[in-house]
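Any chance you could type out some protein's one-letter sequence along with its backbone structure tokens so I can compare the two?
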Amino acid sequence: MNIRPSAIAGSWYPGQVGRLTRDLDRYLAQADTAVPPGKIYGVIVPHAGYHYSARVAAYGFNCLRGLKPDLVVVVSPLHRAPPFLSGRRAPLLTTGHDAYETPLGLLPVAKTAVTQLNAALHQRIGTALTPITHDREHALEIELPFLQHILGQFQLLPVMIREQSKEIAQGLGLALADILRGRRVLFVASSDLSHFYPQRIAEWLDSELLRRLQAFDPAGVMDAEDEGVGFACGRGAVAAVLWATRALGANKVDVLHHATSGDVTGDYSSVVGYGTAVIWQKNRFWEHT
């Protein structure tokens, strides 16, 4: 089996199984999550090192307890493109490996789903997934130990967005919905929020982005940065997952928690924002009870 080795275990999160498991249990126990009373479609979670963002991410991952998906779609931004892509238009990427490895074991890649997604993307927007190997993308890998710890075994469909345009994000979201309708699937969108502003400005920017998120407004999430009122480094990943889940029947987004790196370091002069949310379906039955 062709395995993608961990690029960040031992630095961004613990590399030893015992310590990693204890840390995950502690983060999850500290997150007092009110799980929505409906079908869970997925979560939006941050992707900084666990020391900074895992306490926030745990609020979202707690909503996945007890679920048994066959497939988990993790969509992240691509922070650094490999050199061979220089000068090439490759808006969407996936792994060329057969499985991801973390200290908690191997996660098999859903190769059939990758092939199906390629066909749907060609039909929707005339593009395809570019496979890469031995990448060091932290934004995707950082979510995997939480998922393994909570869900156990599942197949993984990893997507990294290099071109965070509205056309690409919406096309990806609708293509995912095309191929996954009727399946037991969960979605994870990986994104941090504002970067390196003083706390007061970060809170203002993050509050507007989270407001658009809670309004289930993928286009608004994409537009926030251009309008100068909000920022998410994974805005394309967030919007794609919102478009996908809405097409599959989700109708609610609940923002669960927000914090900044300053809440960890005590330095509020230049912070990174972290937020987490759950995407779910509120049925009419609950509206009248």
